[in-house]
Amino acid sequence: MRAPAVLFNVVMAGCLGGAAGYTVANRASQDIIVQVQQEHDLALVREQELRGQLQEALTARAALEVESQRLQTSLAERLQRLEQLAGELARQTGQEVVPPPLPSPEPMPGVEEGTTE
Fold it and tell me: Would you say residue 117 has pLDDT above 50?
């Protein structure tokens, strides 16, 4: 009768050890899942922050483009007015009026040709 009792104790010890091991592994797995979920949540928050910053940057860029166009137009108008005044002054003083050279279209700095945005 001793052999069946020993066998029973070995089987019971194996079952208890397996159950204890499963419990420990399950808790560790749950801890890892919680940690990964927290990292995921933090990543989502960071993504939203970055999207907000990107939107602000795009809005600022659009405003700068509008302002740049306005300044460019204003400068062109001033240049035209100065050329007109120079022509009038030259005629009044009897000097020869030399027409200004035609401006050559220059690409804006920082913008590559052939690219679309």
Answer: no
